[in-house]
Amino acid sequence: MAIETPNYPEHAALGALDSRPVDPEKLDWSPTRFEGVEMKVLMEDKETGLMTALFRWQPGAVLPFHEHTDIEQTYMLEGRLEDEQGAIGPGEYVWRPAGSRHVARAPEGALMLSMFHKPNQFLDEGA
Predict the structure, then answer these.
(1) How far apart are CA 10 and CA 18, in angstroms?
(2) Closest CA to 120 of 72, 62, 57
(3) How many beta carbons lie within 10 A of that of residue 110, not counting itself?
(4) What is the pLDDT of residues 48-77, one digit of tens each?
(5) What is the model's pTM?
(6) What is the spatial distance between Cα 48 and Cα 38, in angstroms, rounded to a whole number?
(7) How far is CA 17 from the centre of its chain?
(8) Is 9 helix (H, G, I), strand (E, B) or coil?
(9) pLDDT digit string (tens) for 83-93?
């Protein structure tokens, strides 16, 4: 199966059509290439880029200018995420259409659940 929860051995014995419960507490936070942004991948398909992940942003973290190559969805659990179009906070949800572009910031830090159909394309030099 191409879709998996990386580094989650509890799924090894499951059948092809079995549900795959995931306890995020059993996953380690992994750094991303962006300072102050960590993630726990809950589900991913490396072949297509489909991914659901928890993201933890430290206060002041910034995700540089990028394009959403397909729909991206985010549900905020803690903190605030903002861009040029506004901000969302705890209990709020936003989705962005394919082709949308922005710089995302978490001035006070944030914890969010995000779902991607395909990976973002980063447009800043050196990103």
Answers:
(1) 12
(2) 72
(3) 26
(4) 999 999 999 999 999 999 999 999 999 999
(5) 0.91
(6) 22
(7) 25
(8) helix
(9) 999 999 999 99
